[in-house]
Design a protein that fits this description.
Belongs to the 5'-nucleotidase family. It comes from Nocardiopsis metallicus. Keywords: Hydrolase, Membrane, Nucleotide-binding, Signal, Transmembrane, Transmembrane helix. With about 725 residues, the chain is an alpha/beta fold. It is built from 15 helices and 33 strands. The radius of gyration is 25 Å and the shape is globular.
Length: about 725
């Protein structure tokens, strides 16, 4: 029998998906240390969001990496069990648990190494050597569909359970079999000492279907199922309970923690927040994340009051194998949390300096070397030359405004839709739509060679190019409204477009849409939209009557991902992934040459702030300024492509993306200038071996991808 009913949505209110929750005034004050010390000390070693960063941290190869991480977490486990460095407030009676809050892998170059025929699942090997007592489900685990997740779980050491109290996997046979075998469960209990048991309850983001591809996996709201599991454990005599959750943003965990009772600590995942205290060493380039509600840096831990007024610490540990979190919990004789030890905080995964650790030899041999060799091969395959730097940054960038890389991606979808339309019996699309959350390199790729590896860093997911015919113009406007509904805040649903230019006013009413794509508040931001053939779709904020429009996008968006209001519109997948479309577009359609004229820095004016869209070139691109006076032919000043709100967003939203806030300054110049997240492994001289290598790579993949397509944005 199914463990859950379908989602009630109690925590999936529209506001919950848009605005982080501000903490209460008492949330930041830690509890006092008890007199007389603790009766029991439990150290929780924790990680989250490793996301296939198996080799090293993207910013610095001397930090991070699965091999160093395995060494450090095992070293810390031994030290904590022995009481090495224990404070005076800690007990001689002690125990250790190790947990991870999910997103164990992420589509991209490193994961692609595991998808080759006959290859082991490298992320599962790294996970097994970390020795976790429990792992929460994450959203990225479903990006390739439930089958690959089942394969990953099966490849991890058999004694590691995957926990989520609000998830029903009975509709997916492979996952259901793992649940029957005890590999998937609402919770688990760890015996840390002869008479001490620790309960670990899991939870996953309820709106999973809007950011990934869970298919027949059913999600419930969080508080009810988690509380039921906590109560069951308490009734069984378990008085120390940890929640490990992947709710996309630590402010979601805050809200949930306030509504629960009996949870002693929460380990958060999905938000990539960096929490630390002043004395904690960080990986170079990292900064402590600012709380979106209070504006204060996130100290370790973050305190909230639960439903009965008990103080609960919430912790997280960045992402990408860069930190092992160490939370020292002191319990009194009644089993109640009495204090958090001063030694608590993130421990960085370093390969240099006084805190350096040696890579775990087995992980180095079984994971690091084969994956590095594979990625290096991709990096050696040059597919194009770019005259201009390509901007794939997040904020400011593809989640806030038009960028030239966003245009390139949207153009590639439109190109693939047109090329393959006849073969698949669909109309040629007029518009291309790429959600900003699907562009993942989070960097500026410098002018020069573009490699096959770069295309996987840009477009790592399993998404297919899809053509959606017969979209009424009123619905096209709804889609455009959805693309700018979150501005000025960064959001994975921000839309990069091809074949259409539009202008919007961020001061006007933003669209509100349900998870199912039903528009409850029509947006009033999109003021003018014009196709590149000169057809006007929207004038003065009103839809202009006319023929329906055919759209090329990715199947994740076509299914309503990022809450795009396609509303179950029929679509046809046209035989290529969005990464494949990008590679074909730059190698074949653009003949291996990305020009500054076609893709200028700052964009070409496809999306502008104002009342009037930029005139399409030749009623097909650029402006119609024949006399060189800076005005277009109808006398309207052409808006600049870089026009954007002057106020920076002051929060991050959990909906539609992974909610990552990397703490960067809101300046384009602060972006890393790389050739992709793994550029440190690529040799300086890129050998031009032709575009065929990547096509061959796709043909060798272990699993088909037609049913996959999750982004998190």
């Amino acid at each position: 029998m199914s463990r859950l009913v379908r989602a009630s949505g109690a925590l999936i209110l529209t506001s919950a998906l848009v605005v982080p929750f501000a903490p209460t005034a008492s949330a930041s004050a830690p509890m006092d240390t008890p007199d007389g010390g603790a009766a029991f000390t439990l150290t929780v070693l924790h990680g989250n969001d490793p996301e296939s960063a198996l080799l090293h941290a993207s910013a610095d190869p001397e930090f991070g990496g699965a091999a160093r991480y395995a060494t450090l977490i095992n070293q810390l486990r031994d030290e904590e069990a022995a009481g090495t460095g224990a404070g005076d407030d800690e007990s001689d009676s002690r125990g250790v648990v190790a947990v991870n809050s999910g997103d164990m892998y992420l589509p991209g170059p490193e994961l692609s190494a595991s998808l080759e025929d006959g290859a082991p699942f490298y992320d599962a090997i790294a996970t097994s050597y970390a020795g976790y007592d429990a792992i929460s489900m994450g959203n990225h685990e479903f990006d390739f569909g439930p089958e690959l997740y089942a394969e990953f779980i099966s490849a991890v050491t058999e004694d590691v359970p995957f926990v989520a109290a609000n998830v029903d996997v009975s509709g997916e046979p492979e996952l259901a079999a793992l649940e029957a075998a005890g590999r998937i469960a609402p919770s688990t209990v760890v015996d840390v000492e002869d008479d001490v048991r620790v309960g670990i309850v899991g939870a996953l983001y309820p709106a999973l279907a809007t950011i990934s591809s869970p298919r027949n996996v059913v999600l419930d709201e969080v508080v009810g199922p988690v509380q039921a599991e906590v109560d069951r454990l308490a009734a069984d005599g378990v008085d120390k309970i940890i929640m490990i959750s992947h709710l996309q943003n630590i402010t979601y965990e805050e809200r949930v923690a306030r509504e629960l009772t009996g949870v002693d600590a929460v380990v958060s995942g999905g938000g990539h927040e960096v929490m630390a205290n002043p004395e904690d060493a960080l990986v170079p380039g990292d900064e402590v994340t600012v709380h979106p509600g209070t504006g204060a840096p996130l100290s370790y831990p973050l305190w909230v009051d639960d439903a009965e007024g008990a103080e609960v610490p919430i912790v997280t540990a960045g992402s990408d194998y860069k930190y092992v979190g160490r939370l020292v919990l002191n319990f009194d004789a009644n089993g109640d949390l009495a204090s958090v030890g001063d030694r608590s905080g993130p421990v960085r995964v370093s390969g240099t300096g006084d805190d350096a650790v040696e890579p775990h030899p087995e992980v180095e041999a079984q994971v690091t070397k084969p994956v590095a060799d594979y990625v290096k091969e991709l990096g050696n395959t040059e597919i194009a030359q770019s005259e201009v730097a390509l901007d794939g940054g997040r904020d400011p960038g593809v989640r806030t405004q038009e960028t030239n890389l966003g245009n390139l991606m949207a153009d590639s979808l439109l190109d693939a839709g047109k090329r393959n339309a006849e073969d698949y019996g669909v109309a040629e699309p007029q518009i291309g739509i790429q959600n900003g959350g699907g562009i993942r390199n989070d960097s500026v790729i410098p002018a020069g060679p573009l490699s096959a590896l770069d295309t996987y860093s840009i477009a790592p997911f399993a998404n297919q190019v899809a053509v959606v015919p017969g979209i009424a113009r009123s619905q096209v406007k709804e889609l455009l409204e959805r693309g700018v509904a979150a501005t000025p805040a960064a959001d994975g649903g921000f839309m990069q477009v091809a074949g259409v230019n539009f202008a919007y006013d961020p001061e006007r009413t933003a669209q509100v849409v349900t998870e199912d794509g039903e528009v409850t508040t029509p947006g009033e931001r999109v003021r003018h939209a014009i196709l590149h053939d000169g057809t006007v779709l929207v004038e003065d904020g009103e839809v202009v009557d006319g023929d329906a429009i055919t759209i090329a996008t990715n199947d994740f968006s076509a299914r309503g991902g990022d809450m795009y209001p396609f509303r179950d519109a029929d679509f046809t997948v046209v035989g290529t992934t969005y990464q494949g479309a990008l590679e074909h577009f730059v190698t074949e359609t653009l003949s291996g040459r990305i020009t500054a004229a076609d893709y200028p820095e700052g964009g070409s004016g496809r999306i502008v702030i104002g009342e009037k869209a930029t005139t399409p070139p030749g009623n097909g691109g650029g402006d119609d300024d024949d006399d060189g006076d800076g005005d277009d032919d109808n006398g309207d000043a052409t808006p600049g492509p870089t026009d954007k709100p002057t106020d920076a967003p002051d929060d991050k939203k959990p909906g539609g993306s992974d909610g990552k806030d990397d703490g960067r300054d809101d300046k384009a110049g602060s972006l890393p200038v790389t050739g992709g997240a793994l550029a440190g492994l690529i040799i300086a001289a890129v050998v031009a071996t032709g575009a065929g290598g990547s096509a061959l790579y796709l043909s060798r993949k272990r699993k088909p991808t037609t049913d996959a397509g999750g982004l998190d944005g």
